[in-house]
Amino acid sequence: MAQIEQMYGKNVILELKEVSKTFLQSEKNDSGPTRRHVVLDRLNLRIREGEFVTIVGTSGCGKSTLLNIIAGLDAPDSGLISVKSNNNKNIGKAERVVIFQEGALFPWLTVTDNVEFGLKIARIPKELRKEIASNFIDMVHLTRFADSYVYQLSGGMKQRVAIARALALDAQILLMDEPFAALDVQTREILHEQLLQIHKSTGKTILFVTHNINEAVQLGDRIILLSPHTRSIKREIVIDYPKPRDIESPEISAIRRELLNELQEDFRFAKTHS
Ligand SMILES: Nc1ncnc2c1ncn2[C@@H]1O[C@H](COP(=O)(O)OP(=O)(O)OP(=O)(O)O)[C@@H](O)[C@H]1O
Predict the structure, then answer these.
(1) Which of 27, 43, 106, 242 has the fewest C-beta atoms under 10 angstroms from its C-beta?
(2) Could you tell which of 19, 41, 63 is best to mutate to test the pocket of ligand 1, judged by most ligand atoms within 8 Å of the CB?
(3) How confident is the model over 248-271, as pLDDT tens digits?
(4) Which range is the signal sequence, renumbered to this chain (predicted)?
């Protein structure tokens, strides 16, 4: 942690201090007694501006809970979350935008209407709205489909619309919760490439939750491993190799193995403590 604080002390855009979250859960069925399930226990995290952070961990360890808390969709029981506010904040700009596995789009609207949606709510003038939407639709390579309805698109295209919509809102931080999990391998590879290009050209800060170790090592500048054991961050691995990365290279393979070992250990722990 000290090493990371040294490296990331400057330009911290997001900071979580001692964040905890407990859910009440029914024991076997809804009518059974309830128990307290501590998901996050005094978690500390700092994210630097422009950083691409991937979050991994065994199923149920709290990855989505963490992302929802950062997004402001859920509240922690205790702890502090600070987001560096955008000084140039205009109407229509969002600090944090979440992109879920199921793009959360309006299927009955066109690609352009979906990307423009938030801007319209924010009363951005029509001409400017069109210009912003067309710019980001172009960035995700969907110009040919700008007037298509979302229900007509493939899963990968829908996720590209969701990314364009988040970019149009000029979110400071993109929060991505397994956005490509439902896609086939080839589409996922293409979207990885495009997301890396977008990250490079926009410099956005990205927090990306995934089950997939390969995805985590391909995309992340830093990997955060959440654990059901510590109920917090168990490991952080800074990956200082240029992208795109060859996941078969000795350096990246070593990181993959390391993560796999950690995940297996946590999986065994979760199994014996569930
Ligand atoms: N609203 C809720 N009420 C009760 N329990 C909840 C609620 N939301 C999440 N949980 C529980 O909190 C734990 C963490 O859930 P979360 O969805 O954050 O895990 P995850 O790491 O994202 O899992 P997965 O990888 O399977 O998506 C799980 O045990 C889940 O059942």
Answers:
(1) 242
(2) 63
(3) 999 999 999 999 999 999 998 888
(4) none
Q: Which of 150, 84, 89 is nearest to 116 (CA)?
A: 150
Which residue's alpha carbon is at the smallest distance from atom 25 of ligand 1? 59
Measure 209 CA to ligand 1 centroid, in angstroms: 13
* Span 66-96, pLDDT tens digits: 999 998 889 999 999 998 876 544 444 566 7
Ligand 1 centroid, distance to 204 Cα (angstroms): 27
Extract long-range pairs of 130-137: CB within 8 Å, 24+ residues apart: 132/168, 133/164, 133/168, 136/164, 136/165, 136/167, 136/168, 137/111, 137/112, 137/161, 137/164
Residue 179: what pLDDT?
Answer: 87
Contact predicate 105/113, CB 8 Å: no
**Ranges assigned E (strand) in the chain:** 12-26, 34-48, 52-56, 78-83, 96-99, 173-177, 205-209, 222-227, 232-238
pLDDT digits (tens, 9 = 90+) for 209-242: 999 999 999 999 999 999 999 999 999 999 999 9
Residue 3 Cα, ligand 1 centroid: separation in angstroms? 30
Given the CA of residue 211, which atom of ligand 1 is nearest to it?
A: 25
Beta bridge partners of 184: none
70, 174 in Cβ contact below 8 A? no
Which ligand 1 atom is the nearest neighbour of the CA of 178?
A: 27
Q: Which residues contact 35 (CB under 8 A, 6 or more apart)?
A: 24, 25, 27
Both structure tokens of 104: 């959360």
Q: How far is the CA of 8 from the centre of ligand 1 (A)?
A: 29
Q: Would the ipTM clear 0.95, i.e. be above it?
A: yes
Residue carrying the six token digits 């990365």: 245
